[in-house]
Design a protein that fits this description.
Elements lengths: L7 E3 H8 L3 H9 L5 E10 L2 E9 L17 E4 L1 E4 L6 E2 L7 E4 L4 E3 H10 L18 H15 L5 H16 L7 H19 L1
Helix pairs in contact: 5-6
Length: 199
């Protein structure tokens, strides 16, 4: 049985995945393209106690994202945004805020994938003509067509990618599967074309 799709990517993983500087990631997050998250222990924000998953403001932690790489790896957060809220909350206890490290910052996988699709990043890597492949991509495409014909499109592209991962796993006892990103590259053009037709 195949593992489910990734839920989070760290900033370092995203930086390597996109071939960009961590300062770029902070800039795109500040522009609202996706959120930078972390997990915190319980803190008091006025009368509320907040814990768990929260969003961070890159501008509050700007020294961490220096393009030259000379900044610290840990900063102090004095305001947070719980994911279910729309307004930032000031941390009142502990009074000095809480430490957060770059290594503990994450982006939701669904937001990473959405950003890649919006910017055509899934098409970046192309195989050369005549290159051999270790995977049955033609078989997967046929399985994909049959699935969509019989049951229509699922709610999200991630579900479709996960189903194709399962298809590879079923045919190899879980021993021979392409990674999620490779499958997404094959699925994305089909997904986009069908979604355009629905719109």
């Amino acid at each position: 049985m195949a593992l489910p799709p990734r839920v989070y990517f760290t900033l370092h993983e995203v930086s390597a995945r996109w071939g960009c500087n961590i300062a770029d990631i902070a800039g795109w997050a500040d522009a609202g393209r996706f959120r930078i998250l972390t997990g915190i222990f319980p803190v008091r924000c006025g009368q509320e106690v907040i814990a768990g998953k929260v969003a961070l403001s890159p501008m509050d932690l700007l020294p961490l994202f220096r393009r030259c790489g000379t900044g610290p790896t840990e900063g102090i957060v004095r305001r947070i945004l719980p994911l279910e809220k729309s307004d930032w909350l000031l941390i009142t206890d502990p009074a000095g805020g809480i430490p957060v490290a770059i290594a503990d910052m994450m982006i939701l996988a669904e937001e990473v994938h959405a950003f890649e699709e919006e910017n055509d990043m899934v098409r970046r890597v192309a195989t050369t003509a005549g290159a051999s492949t270790n995977y049955d991509w033609e078989g997967m495409t046929i399985a994909l067509i049959v699935r969509i014909h019989d049951r229509g499109l699922p709610a999200t592209q991630a579900e479709l990618v996960a189903e194709m991962q399962d298809w590879f796993a079923d045919r190899s006892d879980g021993k021979k599967m392409p990674d999620e990103r490779s499958i997404r590259r094959k699925v994305t053009p089909i997904w986009r074309a069908l979604r355009r037709e629905e719109a």
